[in-house]
Amino acid sequence: MNAYVPAESRYEKMTYRRCGRSGLKLPAISLGLWHNFGENTPHRLKRDLCRSAFDNGITHFDLGNNYGPPPGAAEEALGEILRTDFSEYRDELIIASKAGYRMWPGPYGEWGSRKYLVASCDQTLRRLGVDYLDIFYSHRFDPETPLEETMGALDYIVRSGRAQYVGISSYNSERTREAVGILKELGTPCLIHQPSYNMLNRWVERDGLLDTLEELGVGSIAFTPLAQGMLTSKYLASVPKGSRADQGTSLDSSELTEDMISRLRDLNEIAEVRGQTLAQMALAWVLRRGRVTSTLIGASKVKQIEDCAKAWANLNFSDAEEKAIDALTADSPTKNLWAQSSEGV
Asked: Kind of pairing, strands 16-18 and 219-222?
């Protein structure tokens, strides 16, 4: 018997937004399992994070085939949680995964070939122990594989029952338009695009991607909305021991210059006046105009999920707030770590 019973009020704690022109709604805040879901994290904590997310109305869990460490470990962990905690609630959940980065040795273990994508999807289904995915993504554009082949594989994955919807991640505006057109001709619409986007990393604005998605009726979900943790209270004073910047995992400590920390402190003051934490304001900023359907958070503590889940409650920014935030962030030197697969293609 399932010992976990989710909070009855969970759907009152979250807002759900329609994804593009589809019939699917996503929570404004989704949980990404990129970090803190590998074998180096206790399973009890992973279970507690997922329970907290669902209790707060977060129904969308986002994975990648290579998430860990080691690659595949995050999917295996969520698969166990699906069996032990969420077995009765599968139809209330949106489970997404992706393939595109290196997963196994040899010429068929990465990028965008039909062989790799279909094999990756099958492996993901086995690790998760589910019959289908709700969303399956091409994780990055493959410059050497015809786009028709990559999109054809996504179409096949839907038609074969492996996934309900498909999406793309980190494709620039030009490649997105091509991919969406091919999928439309095949009869499997592109549901969603997943780009990196936050106050400090605005490549989607320079590239025109948000305009393109709006025109094409494709939804979007932003990853790294907190800039690998920079847009939280964590780095307002210094680099804490054990943090991402300290460990050098996904945030280079060289990004945290005196100038950047000063900007973060000023942003935090704006957030305080708004009655939000810096993390809540950063998430609200990404969601504020309705052009981004949902935004992905990562978490290492339950309280982080509880804090971030409240961000949607205040998505309104005054003109003065917008100008003040732009003055602090529009010229940010923050690097887009995914430039090769987005604006660099």
From this structure: unpaired
Using the structure block, give the residue that is written with the tokens 């860990």.
68
Q: ω into residue 6 within 30 of 0, thus cis?
A: no
Cβ 143 vs Cβ 342: under 8 Å: no
Four-CA torsion 19, 217, 166, 284, nearest 10 degrees: -40
The residue among 114, 43, 51 whose CA lies nearest residue 74 is 43
**Topology of the domain comprising 10-233+279-315:** TIM Barrel (3.20.20)
Tokens 């180096």 correspond to what residue?
40
Residues near 155 by beta carbon (within 8 Å), at least 6 away in sequence: 166, 183, 186, 187, 188
Task: Tell me the two tokens of residue 181.
Answer: 């057109």
Helices 173-186 and 147-159 sit at what angle, rounded to 10 degrees? 50
- Give residue for tokens 């028709």: 148
Helix (H, G, I), strand (E, B) or coil at 27: strand
pTM of the model: 0.94
Task: Compute the distance between CA of residue 10 and CA of residue 4 in angstroms, rounded to an integer.
Answer: 14
SS3 1: coil
Per-residue pLDDT of the chain (345 residues; tens, 9 = 90+): 458 999 999 999 999 999 999 999 999 999 999 988 999 999 999 999 999 999 999 999 999 999 999 999 999 999 999 999 999 999 999 999 999 999 999 999 999 999 999 999 999 999 999 999 999 999 999 999 999 999 999 999 999 999 999 999 999 999 999 999 999 999 999 999 999 999 999 999 999 999 999 999 999 999 999 999 999 998 897 666 655 554 555 566 777 888 999 999 999 999 999 999 999 999 999 999 999 999 999 999 999 999 999 999 999 999 999 999 999 998 887 767 766 554 444
Residue type, 257: T
Residue 300 gets which letter from DSSP? Answer: S
> Would you kindly state where each structural domain of the chain is located, as residue ranges?
10-233+279-315
CA distance 261 to 86: 40
